[in-house]
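Q: For a teaching session next week I want to show students how multiple molecules come together into a single three-dimensional assembly. I've collected the sequence lines for a complex. Could you give me the predicted structure tokens for the whole thing so I can convert them for display?
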Amino acid sequence: MVPLLSSEVLIDIYRRMAAIKAHDTRIIATMKAGRLTMPYYSARGQECIPAAVSVSLTDEDYLVTIYRGIHDMIAKGVPPKLIWAELAGRATGTCKGKGGPMHVTHPESGCMVTTGVVGAGLPIACGLALAAQIRGEKRIAVTNFGDGASNIGAFHEALNLASVWKLPVVFVCQNNRFAEHTAYEKGTAIESIADRAKSYSMPGVRVDGNDPVALYKVAAAAIERARSGTGPTLIEAVTFRFNGHLIGDSGHYIPKSQYEAAVGADPYPRFRQWLIDDKHTRAATLDAIDKEVNEAVDAAVQFAFDSPLTDPSEIARDVYASAKVAS
Amino acid sequence: MSSQNINAVQSINWALDDAMARDGRVILFGEEVADPEGGGIVKVTQGLSTKYGASRVRSTPISEMGFVGAAVGAAIAGLRPVVEIMLMNFVGVCMDQISNHAAKLRFMSGGQTHVPLVIRTMTGSGFQNGGQHSDFLEAWFCHTPGMKVVMPSNPADAYGLMLGAIEDDDPVMYVEHIGSYWTPGPPPERGKTIPLGKARVARSGRDVTLIGYSRSMIDLPIVAESLAKEGVDCEVLDLRTVSPLDTDAILTSVKKTGRAVVVHEAVRSFGVGAEVSARIHEALFRELKAPVQRVASKDSPVPFAKQLEAAFLYSHEDIVKAVRDTLKG
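A: Of course. Below is the structure for the complete assembly, covering every listed component.
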């Protein structure tokens, strides 16, 4: 049974979306100011998806995400100050500055793997789910990836294995219409990625990735299906990325009309207005959330840049279990 | 305990059995490893699915990227997966999961996660299996920080090193040699682990150190005995773990003999022999009586035809010649 979508849950989704947007905006500004040096794959425009999925997850549930994954991490509960410290290469970062934006890891909140390799997270999520299944645990694994990942072998092997073994995993494809610079239609031989689920005898659901209510319902059902031991689900959440493949990308390959329509349908202000119009809350409440979120961003940035840089001696640590092993 | 000789198929099976009996975290999967599918292509895993159940011992689809990736995930979650890649060449289809994920996740996560995974695989030329079923590819993994590479040469070591690999907190590539699977040898002491990273002096000698592992450890004792008849006293060192290398054991032996020959079935260029040779030269240049020699397979894909396959692999004469070259000084 999918739990009722209360105003409280809707506001929780909003809070997560607001946090993702605020951190993303500040990360880009800080990069432009020259204080962060890194490749950054902004997920602006896609914040609705992990926000609406994560409200049905606990810290025990596993997350495997990708290089465009800051939104997934924040929604899942990775403390933003640790993410910021990681981006800034600090000793206090999630991974002591040894992973960076493409490899943020935080097991306490279930963020087990962030991969920089397209599609590679799906088989790993199967293994996390397998461990839960073998131990008889109720936790599940969720793995996020883009539309481009549905064309790589790992996607197909993982879906097949998950179905054969009835693994408690939810595959969330965030279809943002572009694989790097290649338009969806040029690289993908099927209209809907959700239809690929048929080949693996699992439900495949296509949903508007900018509609928190629809997403919540689809995700909650898939999560419940996994948790009950029935098996995996493939969700295709159709969305758009507002900042190209990575910061610095001119977006020359994106048709202007497509871009303008997508930005015009920005899920964040739309959802905000809907919450007020549909009387789930008042503007003042959302203003207060926005203020809290912005203060949290300030605090995270402050924490990161106040933290010591990671010492170069860290290169010799964590290569093997014992530091003595190295060569 | 029986002192009757056993082979490596049996001893690895014992190791998996004993590890599964004493540690509920150990799970096995791979193509055809469960009993309904035959208990493994050479039956290394025979009987284990019947004994430990279908949840812990699973036959997989022919889908290495999928199931090796799943093993990475299960290991991060705290299990101890032992997965079988039927033949070593098939690592090519799942290299991303091994080198970009299993090997690196401990480091990239800042030590928050780790991947205690054992990948069993087998290989070796001499069976006319051609270019995609015979390669020794250990150098790929030795060149990957975070991976360990274990290459046993006899049934007793195969047992103890398998326990060592399973107990180890790092990902391990455990390479079995097809040609010596059925070669009998003294049995292991059940329950006794051989820690990784420790070489073994297989024969003590004073004139030259012969360094090998896996298949070449069949050849080196034979060559050493024939040279002994000529008055050349060889020390034979079995690396057992190729990465991390037991540099101390290598240098201790070569300090004594002043000469070394490294022998492996893998092709010669950019191989383990080059690394061993470099480490000896870096540490003992002034004490060496001759340059370190390498004996290996030719730098070609493994060929099919019997006579070509024979020409690909080194011969005992090649080893003898290399030893003689070191004696010339």
